[in-house]
Amino acid sequence: VSQSRYTLRENGEVLAGSLFSRGGYRAYLAGGAAFAFPLAYRRLPQTGATLTLQPKLAWTYVPRFYQGNWYHVDRWDRLYPTNKVQGSVHGSLSRSDWSLDVLACQAYDFEKSSNRFPLHQSLKQAHLMPLQYELSLSKGAFAASMMQEYDWPDFQLLQSELGFNIFLRKLQLGLQYLFQKPRMLSQRAYLSSIPHFLHFSCIVTGK
Prior knowledge:
The protein has 207 residues and is an all-beta fold. Strands 3, 4, 5, 6, 7, 8, 9, 10, 11 and 12 form a 10-stranded antiparallel β-sheet that branches. A two-stranded antiparallel sheet has the order 1-2. Helices cover 3% and strands 55% of the residues.
């Protein structure tokens, strides 16, 4: 690795240089902050259920710098820059024998979509990230979950995941379905061009 490949950034965010005969080093700062708003709590006496709601605001920062020689497995396996502000709301409705959880997230990244990790890119927006929500339901030995991702401005479905699990003593059965929009697979440079995946799992435990 030549010395010219690793230089000190003018803004001082990344310090890098050559090390030994064919190596190099780099040092940088990445971080963020999060603020959880007060938890809203309400007991529903008619049903005996408990309802909770909590918004959250988070900021995540990773500097952008050249790292063409820092791959580990392939060209996707590297550090991706981000300067993201994300708002989320988590709601929960639960009783003694079942629970329902909903999580909605919306983020704005000051980094361009093309610079971000492929799975976090938008098809039509440079900075506004896709809207995501997750829904999960559990009751006794049964659990189900759903996650969907929508792009702006036309609320276009990019990705959808469905999962079902049943727990029977020492046996755990699972079924997962994944849909990804073909155009999204192409733009995000996915390793696969298959839009539909179906996965079945069967786990036997010794306990």
